[in-house]
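Hello Y.,

Per our agreement to keep a running log of every chain we model this quarter, I'm adding this entry. I've kept the format consistent with earlier entries: sequence first, then predicted structure.
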Amino acid sequence: MKKVFMILSSVLFLGGNSLFAQSLKKQNQQLKTQNVALTDSIKKLSLSLDSVTQLKARLLADYENIKEKYNDSGHIADSLQKLSQLQASEIYALQLTNDSLNSRIQKLLAERDFLQYQTDSLIALQENKQKEKKQKELWDRAAWFNISYSPQKINSDLYRSELKSDYAVGITAGKSFYLHKKPLADMIRFALNWSYLDLNIAQYSAPYSDRIDEESDYTDGYDDYESEESQYKMELGMQIGPAIIVNPIDHLMIQAYFHYAPAYSLLLDEDFAYYGSYASFFNTGVSVSYKAIGLGIEGRWGTSTFSQEVYNEAEDDYVFQDMKWKTKGMRVYLSFRF
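Predicted structure for the entry above:
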């Protein structure tokens, strides 16, 4: 029994061991299969790890390169930043210099404008002075001295007919006083003329028979020379009146005027008997002058009254009577202006 048991036990043990061995074999086979799969997985993992290591190495290399580049870029950036700061400082300094230069330029421009203004003012002043000098040269010749010849005529209460002068000469000296400082339109001025000397001398010859106190046959038995008598008439006075003076071109002056001429009139006959009285004359004329020389013509008229000796037939004696002498004519004169 015991042997059977042992045999059974052995069989069972062996059977169990066989089953166990098969189980172990299967497990071993599975382990091998798993080991192969695990080995493959390990290899793959190793390969993957190698790839990762290589990738890591490449990444590290790239990182180092990038870091180096970054460091280089950092240095360049720092340099650029420093350069930029330096340039910014230089630009700021240049800006300050530019602002200073702009300020200086503006100041110089202002000084230039001021100098230009002063130059223009000086030029204008010089032009005005030259113009004033020219105007002074033109208009300063306000004084004159005239020598005239006058073919004048006289109507006298002493003679029946009009008497013509044998000669008549005159001298006039005076000055123009301008009524405004500057010429109108740079060419016209109004003035008040004053002639402080107006001297006129004339000689008349008349037949005795023409006297109102003589008969027409008075000269019977006398020659022509003895039948005439001479009268000398002189006026000494002044002139005053308005004038307009025009300067059309260069030194040419044209003057038109009207003068009142009060005078002392003196009549002298051939017997040296003289008569004097106050007389009023008027002169109006035109003169043309160039610088110091001029020519003029004027009309002259007036009346003198003398108390003269006239033979009175009723009283059969010479008596004094008022005789009017009306003078008219013109004077042509040469003018010297200064």
